[in-house]
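User: What would this chain look like folded?
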Amino acid sequence: MAVTRERCRGDGSWHARGTGTADGDGRVADLMGPGARSVGRYRISCDVGPYHDGQGVRGFYPDVSIAFRVDAADEHYH
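Assistant: Here's the prediction, encoded as structure tokens.
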């Protein structure tokens, strides 16, 4: 499934900062890039529609987004 990491700009618009494809464990090895741990607001979006289609089910959500905030760049977030 396709996954996108975005950062919120000062004007409230979102800017893509990384993309990748989830593996069998749901992890995206190459999603984090330069500035990935900078203080700010972020959003991770998963394109779940094609996954559901591939499973032969009609999913309710075509995509799922989770917004979060990084307050300290030197902290571990998991």
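The first strand starts at residue 2 and ends at 8. If you want, I can go into more detail on any region.
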